[in-house]
Amino acid sequence: VQYSENDLAKNPYFGGPEFSGADIMMMFPLNVATNLNLVDEAQFPKIADWKKRMEARPAYQRMLAAARPDGIPGNL
């Protein structure tokens, strides 16, 4: 997680200056780590900011609407 935090200190996205598939791939493990309280998001502000930006993306919102039509999340 610290490696990811350091990487996001250098670039706004995992693949560099622009959103890429690397960001899509990192969303799941970082969501698991933070949602299960394995990682304290407050200790990693770059990751917390990145997650907010990813979750605000229109495509992410469309995915949630399709995956969770009733608004209820799954087990995570």
Question: Oligomerization state of this entry?
Answer: single chain
Q: What fraction, in percent, of the residue positions are helical?
A: 55-70%
Structural class: mainly alpha
Distance between the termini: 19 Å
The largest β sheet comes out as:
none
Query: What is the CA-atom radius of gyration, in angstroms?
Result: 13 Å
Uncertain spans = none
* Mean pLDDT across residues: 91
Counted by DSSP, the helix tally is 4
Number of strands: 0
Précis, in short:
By secondary structure, the protein is mainly α.
Care to describe what's here?
This protein has helices at 2-10, 21-35, 45-56, 58-67. α1 crosses α3. With 76 residues, the protein is mainly α. It is globular, with a radius of gyration of 13 Å. The chain is built from four helices and no strands.
Q: How are the SSEs ordered, and which strands pair?
A:
Elements: H1 2-10, H2 21-35, H3 45-56, H4 58-67
